[in-house]
Amino acid sequence: MGENGAKRWNFGANEAVEESCSQNVRYFLNLLADNLDRNDGRPVIPLGHGDPSPFPSYRTDPAAVEAVCEAVRSAKFNHYSTTSGLPLARKAVAEYLSRNLSYQISPDDVHLTAGCHQAIEVLISTLAVPGANILLPCPTYPMYDSRASFSQLEIRRYDLLPENGWEVDLNAIEALADDKTAALLVINPCNPCGNVFSRQHLQKIAETASKLGILVIADEVYKDIVFGDKPFVSMAEFSEIVPVMMLGAISKRWCVPGWRFGWMVTLDPHNIMKNSGLVGSLAHVLNMSTDPTTFIQGAIPDILGKTKEDFFTSKLETLKECSDTCYEEIKKITCITCPYKPEGSMFTMVKLDLSVLEDISDDLDFCCKLAKEESLIILPGRSVGLKNWLRITFAVELELLKDGLVRLNNFAQRHTKKQP
Ligand SMILES: Cc1ncc(COP(=O)(O)O)c(C=O)c1O
């Protein structure tokens, strides 16, 4: 409890919150920012988080900007939203998500959220019944871990296997699950590993989850952001096998994370989620949650409908060039190795070889000293569940990326053990 002079106050820090929620990406980015040398005149190179929207090569499509302006000008979208979103926006999202699917998603199954982040909050809160557990990947997008801890939903971690192109360790899933396991999270294309799951692998995941009686949460916020050999296949294709909760947003594909527009879609052709009561509980949690901004909902039919294919093609070309450059430059740096060439999302994971370095104790020490000496921000692997690895985003302006990789190499050379 707080004390201020002689006066005692009945409130103070919440230790449970600090323990469960402090180890996320933002926490580490703030920590690294505190290590920057303010006297270094060079620009800070942000390879720690996936938001390329400030860079000219990743500017969003003018058609999307016009759609938002028009929605605001029309004065038709100044009111509160309805629960789950405005019908016109739910319909537009259902149509967009059905474009490359073998069936049509119903607007009734689409629930709109303030970015994918809020879909995670709502879903995890709904699943967190006393005694339940959830299977989360390692490495991961740690917001799921923070949210689950915060809601006292037990976390059980399964590995993604670097030697198998970061595929899910299906044996581990079977070993970890029990009759209290509510759900299994699959992030595809993957943050933080940069891989894309094949159709066959997704089917195996769906079959395993079905056998175990658990829901699949398919985080597809990087939907269609693929530039390798594998096409993007949605987990929605396997909802006949297992109930799927699909999460997504316009944040990444349109490069507008600040617009805060996402969705959560219940894919439940056999009414398993509905009959279990989960869909009803979800509606209650949505009723007491905030909504995505109404004018963005008003703009959504045009954002999704009028953005030309050229926009996506050109962004993917840029990302591919950045990803290839990143992969090649990493090969020249002796203390890190990349086990798998990225083929989607905006990230890659690289393994740190501490044995060749002097005066670096671990991944966090590496990243703090890197921020201080080179004004370069890279995320320590521990923030996504893998100690002594690093997560690098390549989604920045190409020239800046090249500069960042030169700085990384210089840093690595300076800290490499000298031959006697
Ligand atoms: C895997 C994953 N899921 C969800 C989110 C949150 O998305 P949004 O920015 O739409 O809230 C992110 C953001 O980086 C992410 O990487």
Task: Provide tags for this entry.
single chain, 420 residues, alpha/beta, Aspartate Aminotransferase, domain 1, Aspartate Aminotransferase, domain 2, 8-stranded mixed sheet, 39% helix, 17% strand, globular, binds pyridoxal-5'-phosphate, pyridoxal phosphate binding
Low-confidence stretches are none
CATH class category label of the largest domain:
Alpha Beta
How many separate structural domains? 2
Order of strands across the biggest sheet?
Answer: 4-11-10-9-8-5-6-7
Provide the structure class.
Answer: alpha/beta
What is the C-alpha radius of gyration, as a whole number of Å?
22 Å
Instruction: Give helix and strand order, one letter per element, not per position.
Output: EEHHEHHEHEHEEHEHEEEHHHHEEHEEH
Distance, first to last CA: 56 Å
InterPro entries: Aminotransferase_I/II_large, PyrdxlP-dep_Trfase, PyrdxlP-dep_Trfase_major, PyrdxlP-dep_Trfase_small, TyrNic_aminoTrfase
Family: Belongs to the class-I pyridoxal-phosphate-dependent aminotransferase family.
Cofactor: pyridoxal 5'-phosphate
GO molecular function, one term: pyridoxal phosphate binding
Describe the structure.
By secondary structure, the protein is of the alpha/beta class. It has 2 domains: 16-59 and 310-414, Aspartate Aminotransferase, domain 1; 62-306, Type I PLP-dependent aspartate aminotransferase-like (Major domain) (Aspartate Aminotransferase, domain 2). Helices cover 39% and strands 17% of the residues. The strands form 3 sheets. Strands 4-11-10-9-8-5-6-7 form an 8-stranded mixed sheet. Helix 6 (143-150) links the parallel strand 5 and strand 6 (154-161). The protein starts with a strand and ends in a 6-residue tail after the last helix. The structure holds pyridoxal-5'-phosphate. The site of pyridoxal-5'-phosphate (PLP) has 13 residues, from helix 5.
